[in-house]
Amino acid sequence: MLILLAFILIFHITSAALLFIATIDSAWWVGDGLYTDIWDRCFNVTNCTALNDSFPDYSSIQAIQATMVLSTILCCVAFFVFILQLFRLKQGERFVLTSLLQFLSCLCVMIAASIYTDRREEIHKGNNLGLFKVEYGEYGYSYILAWVAFAFTFLSGIMYLILRKRK
């Protein structure tokens, strides 16, 4: 049982780390000398512009930012709730609250990545600064990590739902 508990803790910490990296790092869309994420756009690594209301489809960007931050917060809260439930629950009870928080985190990251997938062309089109064209490029590793974090938080939520506190 101790090995299973250690595996679940490592899995949860990995999920949180993936969410932090996907939320913070500048690699949601990568092109020639261009790195863009949900916070700013960088051209040639030195010329960075924060995304603000002057960019097209800024409301979608705000929704992505909010849901990614919320998913990271929910994942961290779920970890602390799990630690508390580990010592407070009676033997044989399930970690339902922790599971619920992980599923909510999973839902938030899925919403953020889905909005970005759907609205990517509108977000990058019509760059009014004239610094770079974003038609050419590909999804970066932060975007991929967001989808991996979605799978990890979903599996973690299932594990917490099934897990019972045993001796």
TrEMBL record:
Membrane topology term: Multi-pass membrane protein
Secretion signal span: 1-16
Name assigned to this protein: Epithelial membrane protein 2
Similarity-based family: Belongs to the PMP-22/EMP/MP20 family.
GO molecular function: integrin binding; kinase binding
Lineage of origin: Eukaryota, Metazoa, Chordata, Craniata, Vertebrata
Compartmental location: Apical cell membrane; Cytoplasm, Perinuclear region; Golgi apparatus membrane; Membrane raft
Single GO BP term: positive regulation of cell population proliferation
One Pfam family here: PMP22_Claudin
Domain of life: Eukaryota
Keywords, in A-Z order: Cell membrane, Cytoplasm, Golgi apparatus, Membrane, Nucleus, Signal, Transmembrane, Transmembrane helix
